[in-house]
Amino acid sequence: MEQSNNIFTPTLLTWFAQNARDLPWRHTQDPYAIWLSEIILQQTRIAQGTAYWQRFMQRWPTVNDLAHATEDEVLRAWQGLGYYSRARNLHHAAQQIVQQGTFPNNYADLRRLKGVGDYTAAAIASMAFHQPHAAVDGNFYRVFARYFGLSQPINTPQGKQLFATMAQHYLPPHQASAYNQAIMDFGATVCTPKAPSCSACPLQETCAAFREDRVDQLPVKLRTLKVKQRQMDCFYVHCQGQIALHKRAAGDIWQGLWTVPEADHLSTSLRQQATLLKSNVKHVLTHRVIHANFYRLECHERPTLPADFIWIDEADIDHYAIPRLMEMLLESLA
Question: Annotated catalytic, 38?
Fold first, then answer.
């Protein structure tokens, strides 16, 4: 195993030098551009995230530009990526940076930004400022668990500490950026979650999981997430060319996004007049599964709705940031 310890980092760096993905934020040292890419890619595939990153950079080329945008504008630009708390935190953090007067240039100060955790702070510190911090994400867990044969669950405090310590131990101090990006790319293209390319892996001969035939068993993750079921009845209330929307408040799903009325916003008589468009539409979120019914309600006069509802011209819906479920409702109208 000592031999494998000695070749792990050099082998990865050599592989990366030959196989690095050509990503636009890798052509800059701008911490804003790098930070933006990391936030977008937290829950998003590279192919989709790259297009959003380019649009954000074109519309808001500096952190100052982003800070002075409205939250609605940011959420609208984010639409389609999901996990909208990332967009709200991004906007809030941009305002933090502008208030501070400069972009944080070290791990501790980066970590204080809204929405920036250990991984993101380490990624920015290493890639923008060449500081020796290992950016431990899912790729790190998978590569290290398999290569070193680690069975400690990655979602326990003890497991997280072990992997963080090992990741930092194997980091070459003057090549932190290449090291972090090498493991990101290696985990995304070779040591993938499913059907990894072991035959093409330069570490195959010294990989514990491959030697012990445990590749599909590692990393270990304890099952703790309880997925809740939620029923929703969504009403597209249309009145003389206008529709009703309200912005969802804090403490519920889709905070800050706009949605149509639900059943408890309408009287029984109004609900009975509505036309069912689609039933039991399944929409999966991280912590819950929504089963929605879509209705259309035509009114000659505006119905009484809670005070937080507004009426907008039907054609202006594209100016409002809406969740994917609302997009599905609009699609059902066609």
Answer: yes
Separate counts of helices (H) and strands (E) for the chain? 14, 6
HSE, CB side, 13 Å, CA atoms: give it for residue 54: 9
Q: Which of 2, 38, 212, 327 is catalytic?
A: 38
> Buried b / exposed e across 64-88, counting CB within 10 Å, b at 16+?
eebbebeeebbbbbbbebbebebbb
- pTM for the structure as a whole: 0.81
Q: Per residue of the chain (334 residues), what is the pLDDT tens digit?
A: 444 458 999 999 999 999 999 999 999 999 999 999 999 999 889 999 999 999 999 999 999 999 999 999 999 999 999 889 999 999 999 999 999 999 999 999 999 999 999 999 999 999 999 999 999 999 999 999 999 999 999 999 999 999 999 999 999 999 999 999 999 999 999 999 999 999 999 999 999 999 999 999 999 998 876 788 999 999 999 999 999 999 998 888 899 999 999 999 999 999 999 999 999 999 988 788 999 999 999 999 999 999 999 999 999 999 999 999 999 998 988 7
